[in-house]
Amino acid sequence: MLARLKQMKAHFEEIAEMISDPAVIADQAKWRELIKEHASLEPIVAAFEEYTATEEAIDEARSILEDGSADREMKELAEDEIKLLADRSAEQLQNLKVLLLPKDKNDDRNVIIEIRAGTGGDEAALFGGVLMRMYQRYAERHGFKYELIDLSETEMGGVKEAVFSLNGRGAYSRMKFESGVHRVQRVPETETQGRIHTSAATVAVLPEAEDIEVEINMNDLRIDTYRSSGAGGQHVNKTESAIRITHIPTGLVVQSQDERSQGRNKEQAMKVLKSRLYEIYSTVQAEKEASQRRSQVGSGDRSERIRTYNFPQGRVTDHRINLTLYKLPQFIDGDMDEMIEGLILAERTKLLSGGEE
Fold first, then answer.
1. Which of 194, 257, 301, 354 is the least buried, fewest Cβ under 10 Å from its Cβ?
2. In CATH, what class is 111-212+291-352?
3. What share of the chain is helix, strand, coil (3-state, %, to 5)?
């Protein structure tokens, strides 16, 4: 591992020289690629330099112990220093192992989130609205830009289906664990006997695909326009600004009706289509890498029940890592970091136990 880190540091320094070369700067595509690689290596190199400095300090302290001219007090101080530095070195080495773990290539991407009401009728749709607002509040807390793409509501204000994007660096790394079935246990507003009902909503999280990764033949698409429908919005039902796109080879259907402009809705729908196709292609590739998929926390399968929100007891439980938090009101207000950090830690732990030296 140390030999690999030395090579990475040398490569990092090499890139630093290249990005200041006028000839490289003139080639903007290459320059941007090198800048991106330099930024990805920087935290690893910085951590390696800290670890190296600690090891050098340990060597200096050991040389005092081996120095015949050093007095007893100096040697005692050196022994204390070695103990302190050894703990720091072990911690830094562990941090380096985490930094060297295979990184999900999608982590820095924007995300598209789809919420669909599941079993439970109106109550499931109302819960879908809770989840949608929860992710909105989380986006606000982290500075991600929220963009609504498509929304289908019930008369009671619930969400039958919602599609929206969260844009910002690292959005996918924070949200990727949300894919799956979210179950809610609470007393519905319409329940007169005070009985607790169980319902569910399904969440899908897609990394936003870049144009260069997904090529779409326009001849494979059927594009229909229609009038927007649903509660709110002055443009609803007045113009045929809504767009529905069908990808004929796969049968995928996407739509966007939140924007007033037909062109903007088409752009949003194409973004969702590319991301869904990217997910399909990525899943096929991931199945070829079964060992890597087994090391992940949860499969991301939309049919997998991942979390339960119990309103009477004020708790939220993630079943993949058996973590229960008794702060449900704060959680659905977007205070999700403790849960997300737990999921990230669990994934890192599994990857580390797989062993990459």
1. 194
2. alpha beta
3. 50, 20, 30
